[in-house]
UniProtKB/TrEMBL annotation:
NCBIfam families: antibiot_sagB (TIGR03605). Keywords: Membrane, Transmembrane, Transmembrane helix. Residues 59-233 form the Nitroreductase domain. InterPro entries: Bacteriocin_Proc_Enz, Nitroreductase, Nitroreductase-like, SagB-type_dehydrogenase. This is Nitroreductase. GO terms for molecular function: oxidoreductase activity. The chain crosses the membrane at residues 6-25. Pfam families: Nitroreductase.
Length: 234
């Protein structure tokens, strides 16, 4: 049977168009799961878009704080911190912190121990629904403290926010350069947490010294933890 070159040509053109479209939308497609959730979902209070402290004052007052009062955080405060870290800020799904190519390589985990209205446990933040996905019950702050080389502010904080990176989301698009972009993004998210905590009258500190594998094991994730942010009342 003779080849239909015209038909083959149109097929090739169609295939190229489809593949190109997939590459363009890939950063916006659902990501692989950062942890095994139990299926329980906790809706968070809606974040506020105006506060009592202007950004210039938050920048002026921002400090690393390691001493926290043994008082609980409000669920509204945790909600605001998570929104500042990775909350959705536009109709097309853009988030509070910039991300190269909108690849969003981070999952935000919460190790909660002393938050009003929230059972102690490990949770994962869902930016699209502004909710917490329940991972496992129990107060794991002491375990996280030991994994963080016995830095007691990790265990004394009301809650620990852990930034977990999935490098493949960035390297699939940018190759090895994507590793650098992931590290840049960690800084963007971290500063947002710092400034939001300051604006709320809370204290936090960026913790980078810990046993990566042990922290991943505690969280139940295959990602690479890059930052722990203990947060407490000061």
């Amino acid at each position: 049977m003779p080849w239909n070159y015209r038909g083959i040509g149109w097929f090739v053109v169609f295939t190229v168009i489809v593949l190109s479209s997939l590459l363009l939308v890939k950063p916006y497609l659902p990501r692989e799961s950062g942890g095994t959730a139990s299926g329980e979902e906790i809706a968070l209070p809606k974040p506020r878009f105006k506060g009592e402290m202007i950004v210039e004052e938050a920048i002026l007052r921002r400090r690393s704080m390691r001493d926290y009062l043994p008082e609980p955080l409000k669920l509204e405060e945790l909600s605001q911190l998570l929104w500042a870290a990775q909350g959705i800020t536009s109709p097309d799904g853009k988030r509070a912190a910039p991300s190269a190519g909108a690849t969003y390589p981070f999952e935000v985990f919460v190790v909660a121990g002393n938050v009003e209205g929230l059972e102690p446990g490990i949770y994962k933040y869902n930016p699209q629904r502004h909710s917490l996905m329940f991972i496992k019950r129990g107060d794991y702050r002491d375990d996280l403290e030991r994994a963080a080389l016995d830095q007691d502010w990790v265990g004394n904080a009301a809650v620990d926010i852990v930034l977990v990176a999935f490098y493949g989301r960035a390297t699939e698009v940018y190759g090895e350069r994507g590793v650098r972009y992931v590290h840049m993004e960690a800084g963007h998210i971290g500063e947002n947490i710092y400034l939001q905590a300051t604006a709320l009258g809370l204290g936090t500190v960026a913790v980078g010294a810990f046993d990566d594998e042990r922290v991943s094991e505690i969280l139940g994730t295959e990602g690479r933890p890059l930052y722990i942010f203990p947060v407490g009342r000061v």
